[in-house]
Amino acid sequence: MKVLIAINEEEFVKPVLNYFSQQTSIMTNMEFTVLCVVEPCVNYSYLSIHPSVLIEDLTVKRFKRASRLIQAMASSFHLRFGNVPVSERMLEGSPADIIIDTANLSGFDLVLLGSHKRHGVARILEGSVSSKVAEHAKCSVVVIPLCLACDTTIEKEADQIDAPGVSPVAGAIVQQNSIG
Questions:
Q1: Bridge-based pairing state of the strands 110-115 and 140-145
Q2: What is the mean pLDDT of residues 65-92?
Q3: pTM above 0.90, yes or no
Q4: Average pLDDT over residues 127-135
């Protein structure tokens, strides 16, 4: 089973590891790709008033941060699960579009990503990457709410659907999509 893990926050490393700790019986048949998408700085109109040097500096910092996140996830996987195959990808673009394209074009069976659970104006302005991925990916999608990372109790927001070979974790939203 090919699993794409899309991360953008350090807080998601622990819940992702905990999620797969419950899947140990099938871990030997899984290969993982950790993906971090860096949004281009030019998407933010307020940056257009800043000199290009500042924008370049911000871009470099974003790529360094993404690299650290990917390495943290990959090394945590190796520490927890041993010699499980984990590849690393860092791409630039719209997070939802990149995750969907990567999942669909590379034949992943499962996408796992986190959700900030934004509401109201924040959701309108920033959109929901997890919602868009769950809607457009051709494979099953597991969304782990950020509040699971801080060990708070949350209510299930949707009926959980079992992805093939993957059992849901408390609080995770699982969407099983069909290919085609």
A1: parallel
A2: 90
A3: no
A4: 84
What is the C-alpha to C-alpha distance for residues 71 and 160, in angstroms, rounded to an integer? 30
SS3 track for 33-69: EEEEEECCHHHCHHHHHCCHHHHHHHHHHHHHHHHHH
CA dihedral 118, 103, 3, 15 (to 10 degrees): -10
Taking alpha carbons only, the member of 46, 34, 38 closest to residue 4 is 34
Task: Report the pLDDT averaged over residues 124-143.
Answer: 82
Higher-confidence residue of 4 and 167: namely 4
Question: Residue 170 pairs with which residues in a beta bridge?
Answer: none
- Who wins on pLDDT, 4 or 48? 4
Q: How far apart are CA 65 and CA 20, in angstroms?
A: 24
Contacts of 96 (CB under 8 A, 6+ apart): 127, 129, 132, 133, 136
CATH superfamily label, 2-175? HUPs (3.40.50.620)
3-class SS at 5?
A: strand
Strands (E) across the chain are located at: 2-6, 31-38, 86-92, 110-115, 140-145, 173-175
